[in-house]
Amino acid sequence: NEVGSGVVPATAAGRRFRDELGRLNAAVAAECEQVLLVVAGQVLVLRG
Hints:
With 48 residues, this protein is an alpha+beta fold. It is built from one helix and two strands, in the order H-E-E. It has one domain (3-47). It has one helix spanning 12-30; strands at residues 35-39, 42-47. A two-stranded antiparallel ribbon has the order 1-2. The relative contact order is 0.16. The mean pLDDT is 93.
């Protein structure tokens, strides 16, 4: 998802959510052979 692609959240809770979600996404991606990002309907191959 694109939670970390926007502006810096105004609250500490929002920043923590963004950071924790980023760590979770990185951990999931580390277990995958293929990693894709879809932006505006376009598929970008990040790995694989």
